[in-house]
Amino acid sequence: MTKILAVNAGSSTLKWKLFSMPDETVIASGLVDRLNLPGSIFTVKRPDGDKFEETQDNIDYRLAAAMVLSHLKEAGIVKHLHEIAGIGHRIVAGGEIFSDSAVVDDAALKQIHELAQYAPLHNPIEAEYIEIFQQLLPNVPQVAVFDTALYTDMPKINALYPIPYQYYKEYGARKYGAHGTSHRYVSARAAELLGKPLSDLKLITLHLGSGSSISAFDHGKVIDTSMGFTPLAGVMMATRSGDIDPSLVSFLAEKKHVKMSEMIDILNHQSGLLGISQLSPDQRDLESAQDTNPQAKLALDMYANRIVRYIGSYIAELNGLDALVFTAGSGENGIDMRAKIADQLSYFGIQIDHDRNQVRGKEQVISPDSAPVTVMVVPTNEELMIVRDVQRLTQK
User: pTM for the full model?
Assistant: First the structure.
């Protein structure tokens, strides 16, 4: 039995899961929240329901990693830390350098740092955690799992923007996508549930959460995705605008007398569902208020509309569709939103069975048996994808 640790690091949180492999059983999982702030919260959960929680002020990145390893040993989750045979890290930006996950050596770590220009809020922190775990467990191999790797070889007709070509050659100005680890897992799992090879299918996967993205798979290859150079592009999201006329951004910056960087911040954090509703970025809040709050209803309608537009365009690109797959927070739990989206796609043979759709966070086909397109809910599991990559690349 091999134990592999999956690490998903953010600026204010450290999420992790420890797996037993190859049986893919979660041994323990945890979260360190409010990093570098008063009242940092360290939480560990076991599959049997046992939970440990500790509050401590200003837990920094190094202490967070050390606390995870210390607790694993002190709680008897592992007898010795050398039982951990590998560590996998979610890395946002791999540019065009990494078309697959990679074992981290000095060269790869340097490249992850250099790719920070494409993900300045994520790559530096994720690289720092790699360095911290290298120091804490120097003999344990580490693997970088890149969100963008799935889209590296996407056809150039969809990957490139219609701007001067030298901007792509000189600055890497192209569509990189995001949520690739989630889309990779969900597409493969959907194919398993359908009992067909992914290479035989035309799929559209909908990762609908606080951040939302849509990807189109043509016989196992991604041909298009909604997020772009950054995760700001694509469909409307909880607080992100999604696609918008760039001239409007310049126009508003002049009107508001703010820098372009401030406008980008507004598009990232004050737009989307929150911006339209002026109430909440959470779909559940908006659904509760939509009967009496016109802006809440408008926000939900706009969100569904943008998703429907992308699905329609991807069906055209794919020249058909075998399955539509919902995942992530809203995709897995949004019963009403799934129905709202499907109802606008009936022309394409997309239907939802009302009774089957009454499901949250569970694998299930939610279309009628007679429907020409299978509609499914497949909960994502990025951490499982990460540890599978660690095992694939290190256990040879």
Answer: 0.90
In angstroms, the CA 58 to CA 33 distance is 10
Q: Six-digit token pair at 277?
A: 């509703």
Decide: helix, strand or coil at residue 269. Answer: helix
The contacts of residue 83 (CB under 8 Å, 6+ apart) are 3
Which residue in 33, 147, 224, 389 is the catalytic one?
147
User: Which has the closest alpha carbon to 271: 246, 227, 236, 302?
Assistant: 236
Nearest to 101 by CA among 217, 4, 180, 214: 180
Triad 194, 27, 211: Cα angle to 5°: 55
Token code pair at residue 140: 């344990």
Q: Which helix (H) or strand (E) holds 145?
A: strand 142-146
- Reported residue count of the chain is 396
Question: What span, in angstroms and rounded, lies between the C-alpha atoms of 313 and 234?
Answer: 12
Q: How far is CA 133 from the centre of its chain?
A: 23
Does residue 147 carry a catalytic annotation?
A: yes
Q: Which residue positions form the known binding site for substrate? A: 90
Task: Determine the pLDDT at residue 35.
Answer: 83
Query: For the chain, which residues score pLDDT lower than 70?
Result: 396
Tell me whether residue 336 is exposed, middle or buried, using C-beta atoms within 10 angstroms of its C-beta: 0 to 12, 13 to 18, 19 or more: middle
Return all residues near 170 (Cβ < 8 A) that are at least 6 apart: none
39: alpha, beta or left? (left if phi > 0; alpha if psi -120 to 50): left
Omega of the bond prior to 22 within 30 degrees of 0, cis? Answer: yes
Annotated binding site: 8, 15, 90, 207-211, 282-284, 382
Residue 68's pLDDT is what? 93
**Binding residue numbers for Mg(2+):** 8, 382
pLDDT at residue 365, rounded to an integer: 96
Q: Label residue 156 exposed, middle or buried (CB < 10 Å: 0-12, 13-18, 19+).
A: exposed
* Structure confidence at residue 396 (pLDDT): 63
